[in-house]
Specification:
The protein is built from 17 helices and 6 strands. The chain is α+β, with helices and mostly antiparallel strands. The chain folds into 3 domains: 19-173, no CATH class; 204-329, 2-Layer Sandwich (Alpha-Beta Plaits), CATH 3.30.70.2730; 334-422, Arc Repressor Mutant, subunit A (Orthogonal Bundle). The N and C termini lie far apart (86 Å).
């Protein structure tokens, strides 16, 4: 065990397991052996994935196989260190969660077991290489026999546990689980403390970081393979975002996409989510990532705010809270927002293309801090054209452009995002 150390040139992303598991392993087998296990598991999963890809064999499909392999390797090393018998070895949480995710993503049990045995073979090779390097020749045969016997009995215990877990999850997944998950999540979002079995029912850890997005169909027509398309998008997004867990919950025509992370997502996570390919019929509204229960609730609230804007502005298929937060406040009272737009932009309203061009030019001009050059670059226009349209806007508004600029910009932004607010209202004279 003392010979297990990571390579000096290791530049990986660190352990895939949560900090609690890593701390427990370090206390039992030491930090160097724990780091070796994390590095070795990452290498094994990469090599097995390459082998499966070259052979055209389905294997790595959930995106969480590295955590499962790392957790099993750490459990194996701890068992070897303690001399634990196979009957007392239990498949670790990371591997069990990978199996639960496999069920939710429709991965057959044969593919799960194929991955387990392929990773086991690589683990065996890695440990035998250490024995070959460190153990004297006169002890080599005995050490190899003892290691092989222990590893074989351990992997049999893992396989038995994982198969039972797969069957249990399959029964739940096709039975009452969706309703149970909705119940648990609704209670958490309402401010209740989660019950002891909440994480087991949800299949996600509540103590990490969370990103919530709400998806709804942008069409009322028939959508073939709707469930499969949503699940595929959520899975692709989980891999692109580096999420360690993913869940969808359906409620009243809306799909809640929930991605969980062991560590805080990068600031670019929203750009990455926006870039994930998704069906044209999915309109997505996303909150910002948050930490713990409070972060989960905040991300959901922000996704709801973005969804409010998305429903009123169906032409845009992706909204995040950074773009939608202020608009959600402004349009919370649609009639009041319409009155505000029509009062502030009187003279600039109407479907005529010339008026539309003037409004858009003025909006860019004010967003650019009254810079004709910046507005011209954004709109690909000549600066003289921007100047003319801004001057014309002032004439139609009947007031100087530098008067109440913020109010004018807010009204223009509302009119641009929600064109229906420009429709005539019976305003008092």
């Amino acid at each position: 065990m003392d010979s297990l150390r990571p390579t000096a040139s290791a530049t990986g992303d660190g352990p895939a397991s949560d900090p609690e598991i890593i701390a427990s392993a370090e206390a039992e087998i030491g930090a160097p052996a724990t780091a070796w296990a994390a590095e070795t598991a990452a290498d094994i999963v990469r090599l097995v994935d390459e082998e499966f890809s070259l052979a055209g064999t389905p294997g790595m499909m959930t995106g969480t196989e590295r955590e499962g392999c790392e957790a099993c390797l750490l459990t194996t090393l701890i068992g070897l260190h303690r001399g634990t018998v196979a009957a007392d070895i239990v498949a670790p949480r990371g591997a069990q969660e990978n199996v639960r995710l496999s069920v939710r993503q429709g991965v057959p049990i044969a593919s799960v077991l194929r991955t387990v045995w392929a990773c086991h073979t690589r683990v065996q090779d890695a440990l035998l290489a250490v024995i070959e390097r460190e153990v004297p020749a006169d002890r080599m045969v005995a050490e190899v026999r003892e290691l092989n016997a222990a590893l074989f009995s351990y992997v049999n215990s893992y396989v038995s546990d994982l198969m039972r877990g797969y069957e249990d999850e399959l029964a739940l997944w096709h039975g009452r689980l969706p309703a149970e998950r909705l119940r648990v999540l609704t209670a958490i979002l309402d401010g209740e403390e989660p019950a002891e079995d909440a994480e087991r029912i949800l299949g996600l850890r509540l103590s990490g970081h969370h990103l919530i997005a709400l998806g709804r169909p942008a069409t009322s027509g028939h959508i073939p393979d709707r469930d499969a398309a949503r699940q595929r998008f959520g899975t692709d997004a989980a891999q692109s975002l580096g999420a360690t867990g993913f869940l969808t919950i359906e409620h009243q025509g809306t799909t809640l996409f929930w991605w969980a992370f062991n560590t805080r997502p990068a600031p670019s996570v929203m750009s990455a989510l926006r870039a994930v390919p998704r069906p044209d019929w999915i309109q997505l509204a996303a909150g910002r990532p948050g930490s713990g229960l409070s972060g989960l609730r905040e991300s959901h609230f922000e996704a709801q705010q973005a969804a409010l804007v998305a429903r009123l502005s169906p032409r845009q298929k992706f909204w995040d809270y950074e773009d939608a937060g202020m608009l959600a406040l402004l349009v919370a009272d649609p009639e009041g927002a319409a009155r505000f737009v029509q009062v502030q932009l009187a003279g600039l309203l109407g479907p005529d293309q010339k008026l539309t061009d003037i409004r858009d030019t003025l909006r860019h001009f004010l967003m650019a801090g009254s810079s004709r050059l910046a507005a011209a670059q954004a709109l690909h226009l000549a600066t003289n054209t921007v100047a003319y349209r801004v001057k014309r806007a002032a004439e139609l508004l009947g007031r100087p452009i530098n008067e109440n600029q913020v109010v004018t910009l807010v009204a223009l932004q509302l009119a641009h995002t929600f064109p229906q607010l420009m429709d005539a209202l019976a305003l008092p004279k």
